[in-house]
Amino acid sequence: MRVYDCIQKKRDGSVLTAEEIEFIVAGVANDTIPDYQLSAFLMAAFIRGMNPEETAHYTRAMMASGDVLDLSDISPLTVDKHSTGGVGDKISLVLAPAVAAAGAIVPMMSGRGLGHTGGTLDKLEAIPGYRIGLSVDEFRAALREVGVAIIGQTGRLAPADKKLYALRDVTATVDSIPLITGSIMSKKLAAGPASIVMDVKWGSGAFMRTIEDARALAASLTAVGRHMGRKVTSFITDMNQPLGRMVGNALETIEAVECLQGRGPADIMELTRVQAGEMLFMAGRAPSFDEGCTLFDRVIADGSAFEKFVSMVENQGGDAGYLRDVSRFPAAAERIEVRAKQSGFIQAMDSVSIGIASIMLGGGRERSEDVIDHSVGIEVLKKCGDQVAGDEPIAILHASRQSKTQAALERYLAAVTIGPAAPAARPLVVERI
Q: What's the pTM value of the predicted model, to 2 decimals?
């Protein structure tokens, strides 16, 4: 078998066999195919696309390129969740312990923030001592003891994806539904969950800017998961404004604690409740989605979800005293008000620009090696549909003295559109696939 023939076949619009796809991915994993041929293959797949069977074969080969965890001895009904990324998205910090408190086993391997989106691991590392780098044995032990663990992905999970993603990033082939599907699902499935809930976001702060693109990705993720014998449900959710009120690592961790104590913003609670209901139904802890949602309400109300979060943090070396007294989290050196330039209603928010404003303050990464300041971020005071008066504060920048404060302030103001009429309300959860 020759790589040349596989590239030519895909270039001409033909369907690759499972063996041909496995041959290419194996060449990625063992460094026997040069980058220029891999780049040609990616461009051919980008332009010609891959059908559902090819996408499933591609995902399976990527998954098999490294370690594949088997958690069936811990529970046959493990359940995980993945978000395609957004601004202010601290859902996992609330969702994982709540679902575990209701009796499910939640093995969650998460990522760091890069670009305008925040990362679950960065938020957790705002808690002193929290260890994201558990070994596989420690991960399994945590699941047995606590029922939930949130850790970083090991380098041996789907290693072929790391190289292919780096090539996609420099060859303009990132925005391909089959390639995105393979990248996401290969890592998630290698981590061992029996069921996965996907949160596919659309809008100004999402990688999928239209509902149609989000729907296509959600359908692809769901189909591939089921093709590989896993239960997968995808929700299409709105990311046209930040989730909750806080953007920034310590700020979002504090807000997650408030949610676990039943005091969180309505949008965070709604989205978490929906995903928890589905996860508990898929994991066999509730007989229906609706009863799964009710069970989520119960573990929030009785405090067991919060206590499960405390147990998880303690088990992974974190100082849980920060959760019981959030005033211990580091505070930014400066608080600068962002004031409205005119009166009216907030009609739209460019969430990408708001995420970038947080990065300007030091709260995120533009490059993977950047060091972040956990204390900085943005407190969103006014959101879409809210009425504001001229010169009224619409946000507060939590900044360090080294922050690009003025540039961040101007970026935030430019991200908010104020007009004479309130915008039509949009549903937070658009569709379930």
A: 0.92
